[in-house]
Amino acid sequence: MYIYNSASRKKEEFIPHTEGKVAMYTCGPTVYHYAHIGNLRSYIMEDVLEKYLRFLGYDVKRVMNITDVGHLTSDGDTGDDKMLKGARREHKTVMEIAKFYTDAFFDDCQKLNIKTPDVVEPATHCISEFIKVISSLIEKGYAYEAGGNIYFDTSKLEKYYIFNDFAEEDLEVGVREGVEEDTNKRNKADFVLWFTKSKFDDQELKWDSPWGVGYPGWHIECSCISMKHLGEYLDIHCGGIDNQFPHHTNEIAQSEAYLGHPWCRYWFHIHHLNTDSGKMSKSSGEFLTVSLLESKGYDPLVYRFFCLQSHYRKNLVFSYDNLDNAAGAYQKLVAKVACVLDGKGGNVDKAKYDELIKGFRDALDGDINTAQAITAVYDVLKSDADNATKYKLIEDMDYVLSVGLIAAAEKSVKSKENAASDIPDEINELVKQRAEARKAKDFAKADEIRAKITEKGWIVEETRQGTVIRKA
Ligand code: AMP
Ligand code: ZN
Fold first, then answer.
1. What is the mean pLDDT of residues 202-222?
2. Residue ranges per domain, the chain?
3. Nearest CA to ligand 1 atom 14
4. Which terminal residue of the chain, N or C, has fewer Cβ atoms less than 10 Å from its own Cβ?
């Protein structure tokens, strides 16, 4: 498999540190509000990557943090803690807010068929790990105390900027909102590892530390949680493109300074979902959530399908028109899948399977090209394979894509059957007579009965699933 590595800015063959095993880390949500569908685009694409690695036979361990402290309104260490802002907004405690929005996040994930990572760790559970790593960084000369806070000294590194020849707008996020420069910093790029009471006195959650009562910076959380559960070598680190700088740049700085060797091999960044008016936001314009889409009648899996139709390294524009187009394509695909349901559990033609799975694998081996992988699904349905082989292919492909093709097809067949139960007795009787006439090869009579059925406002037709009766 080849994936684009943002750190080398090249597509590279994926070779994990330990053969057959993958250590994968994902920056989790900051749980001060609902996730918007842009955030969820990132988690959908990461889910496909994880499931494809599993499909290939890797033993994947995936870890995600929950940011419940330390993420300030500016990623550049200024402003309020987002959690505190959320708590004030809703007149609740930070922990109440964290619990509520963590649950809401996983509800959304479930609706979108996003698998829960093997380990989910809230930052507030790891304070002793943060203190251990920060203490070591101070000892090694990579961190210093100033004005009551502990900072990472970026001048001690040979190379600090890793991802930085990206477009300015991708980097702007670190210094946005015209906030004041922190005068405690020795170098402009230095960042906070630990805040103490000298700053943000009203912070609700605080812990004792060798440097005074305070709380951790956002960046140190991900480094420590990753190392705690995945050890010293990380294979893939994922996140939205806005996290490249400063968040991921800082994670690399502090992890490698602490470990004394390279840390993460592949960086997988998902580009943004935008609206017509620009970047998606929780504070301006329509706050686009999964629940909002549902309230407008959209199946969350249609949104997942919409995301998969585009490559993760391209910005994607959300509009209801675009979503409607995806919904139409999804329904057509489901209808085609319904025609192969009778192949379930049948004998699979191994040679045909191998021939048809190749297109799917080629698509995903080529930097997770999900749009091409969907084309491979259509190719299976169009092929001359038997239904048992088609069914197995769709089942395996949908394990990775997770757009619920088989479940949706079964549901549509069921709802047609239920609709059939509303058919008046008189029509059912005529349909029965027509079937008998057909059986007796009396096609003239069969046609006559069909005309009668049509006259009464019903349509009877033969499909691959058998006779279907519906209202005209
Ligand atoms: P947050 O909850 O703000 O920490 O963000 C959660 C994830 O969503 C991070 O990986 C972000 O990089 C990502 N993200 C934020 N905005 C967008 C967007 N508009 N499109 C895609 N991913 C995003
Ligand atoms: Zn992170």
1. 90
2. 2-270, 282-410, 423-471
3. 39
4. C
Q: Cα-atom radius of gyration of the chain, to the nearest Å?
A: 27
User: Residue 169 C-alpha to ligand 1 middle, in angstroms?
Assistant: 15
Of the listed ranges 277-286, 332-341, 420-429, 460-469, the least confidently predicted one is 460-469
| Cα–Cα distance, 436 to 445 (Å, whole number) | 10
- What interhelical angle do 300-308 and 370-382 show, nearest 10? 100
Looking at 3.40.50.150, 3.30.497.10, 3.40.50.620, 3.30.460.10, the CATH number of the domain 2-270 comes to 3.40.50.620
Position in ligand 1 atom list of the atom nearest CA 239: 10
Ligand 1 pocket member 240 (CB < 6 A): yes
- When pLDDT is averaged across residues 212-231 and rounded to a whole number, the result is 95
Q: What is the mean pLDDT of residues 19-47?
A: 97
Per-residue pLDDT tens over the stretch 84-109: 888 889 999 989 999 999 999 999 99
Residue positions counted in the chain: 472
CATH among 1.20.1070, 1.10.10, 1.10.286, 1.20.120 for 282-410: 1.20.120
CA separation for the pair 136, 138 (Å, rounded):
5
Closest CA to ligand 1's atom 6: 29
Cα-to-centroid distance, 106 and ligand 2 (Å): 18
pLDDT bin (cut points 50, 70, 90) of residue 46 is very high
Given ligand 1 and candidates 25, 30, 39, which is best to mutate, with the most ligand atoms within 8 Å of its CB? 39
**In this structure, which residue's CA is closest to atom 5 in ligand 1?**
29
Cβ atoms of residues 127 and 207 within 8 Å: yes
* Shortest-distance atom of ligand 1 to CA 274: 19
Choose among 436, 464, 440, 462: nearest CA to 449: 436
Q: Say how many Å lie between the CA of residue 82 and the centre of ligand 2.
A: 15
Question: Does the pLDDT at position 173 exceed 80?
Answer: no
Contact between residue 61 and residue 98 where contact means Cβ atoms under 8 Å apart: no
Is the beta carbon of 242 within 6 A of some atom in ligand 1?
yes
Give 414-462 pLDDT, tens digit per residue: 887 777 778 888 998 999 999 899 889 898 999 999 999 999 988 887 7
CB-ligand 1 contact for 154 (6 Å cutoff): no
Distance 119 CA to ligand 2 centre (A): 14
Interatomic CA distance for residues 28 and 121, integer angstroms: 9
